[in-house]
Give the backbone structure.
Amino acid sequence: MLTLISQLIIAVTGFLAALLLMYGLKRMSSPATAASGIRVAGVGMLAAVIAAFLYCFNLDPAAQPHIWVNLGLAILAMAIGGSIAWWSGKTVKMTAMPQMVAIYNGMGGGAAAAIAAVELFGGRTNGTTELIVTLFGAMIGSLSLSGSIIAWAKLDGVLKAPLQFGGQQMLNLVVAAVTLVVGAAIVVAVAGGPALLPLPGLIALFFGCALVFGILMTLPIGGADMPVVISIYNAATGLAVGLEGYVLHNPALMIAGMVVGAAGTLLTVLMAQAMNRTIFNVLFKRFGATKGQKHSAIAGEEKPVEAGDAAIFMRYAKSVIIVPGYGLAVSQGQQKLYDFVKLLVAAKVSVKFAIHPVAGRMPGQMDVLLAEAGVPYDMIFQLADINDQFATTDVALIIGANDVVNPAARTDKSSPIFGMPILNADKAKKVYVVKRGQGKGYSGVVNGLFYEPEAFMVYGDASAVLGKMIEAVKGLGKAAA
Amino acid sequence: MDSQMTINVYAGAYIFMLAAFAGWVIIGNVPAILHTPLMSGSNFVHGIVVVGGLYVLLNATTMLEQAIGFVAVLLGAGNVAGGYAVTVRMLEMFKSSDAPKTHHAKRRHVTHHAKKA
């Protein structure tokens, strides 16, 4: 009876979790409903996790004697893993979000791989199909784990430059092939065929190869492409979870995993498009491989201007569009920027933020950073929605952004960023560019916009410049009074 | 023998196909402004793997299985708890200019304190 009831509860909560998780993601289609959506999803998840402890009432007979040890281990693992991750999630800085997401993602991949390992070492898979599905889940989960760790190390600055050497792609190909061959050998051995190694040895080798493959695959990829890589591993982990869900006969895992697998794939494609890269290029070609080429001749020179003068011009403008980039986040200037914007809004200036899809280190990160500073989301506009408005705007204020406003992407076929969607800041009547110095952007491409007749440079750290701008506008108010 | 549902290969393929389609459609409607929370949110969703981890750990019969099962639950719990924590934190920051009152009051409060100190 107890067995039956617990089975029923597990089945119902699993169904509910799958439903609520999808509903929660659905509610992310607007910032107004997103927060409540994720909470609803959280309720579904919590119910499924608590119900999972009811597995105690219908264990394999062989596991019965170990129940107390296993239960203790489960509670301990939940407590340690859950509390450490919860605490780090609550305290991580918003600028460090990409590497945090990479770590949580790697954990999910590792968990899927570990489930597969128990199934494989314990010989629990039932039939060849299940075995093959388990192996694929194991491989994808393992490479997602090790790859995500490398991605974290790169974004966190632990690993500096992309590691590249001759014949690297050949080596990667060989490791991938060896992984598949070992997997096939496991299938043959389990089916009763000849085994090159004892089965546990083969399984260990299989996991080893998959982990090494994840490391090798991620090492040569540069920092700018890392968000795409994180997104790929996110999709991969989802897929691995879905496959292990099939092996465990758990439809909730299958559905949640596969939803993420598809979602992550779509997100990866969108991201790669915004960066003007194909997924193939991200994985196998280095960005800026065409570096050092001749740039089209650019006429004119950069014209510096004082922060205060620029601020006062904007104070008397009708409309201003602000284009923030990662340089703003680096100098922690978001709060000051919003303070400045509030002054402009108080003076009846129409102010909008224009966000490029890859502003920041990760798509959407700039939106989060602005939201953190208190900017209401209805002031924040995405590329497609605002690009036509630059032409009728008095001032475009570019802060710490470079490549995403480089007109060469529209005009210069020889430029490595040609074809990348950009914000048309150059179409505004006047352009102010806040920049640390006369450097190039992440892509190493010269930006012709800075040499336009109506473009003016405000040199300095974004945060310091904004401080001066606030003072200038406030001083104006005092003088008038 | 199995306490759980049995799903044959065909039913499994249909579940995968429909779930993938649902994921594609649902995420296609998410605006770019929420792409970072979306990534961490979908990260949280695959954290359901912890349920699978609990299943294998509770059914473990050898030391090796217990050790690997422990790792599975540990990592899965980290995935789900961390993914949820960061996603909620980020989404709570998104406010509309129509309803910023509580937020502003709170922020003013904070700066007030900061000035005192």
User: Anything to note?
Assistant: The helical segments of chain B are 9-28, 35-45, 49-58, 63-93, 101-116. Chain B has a mean pLDDT of 83.
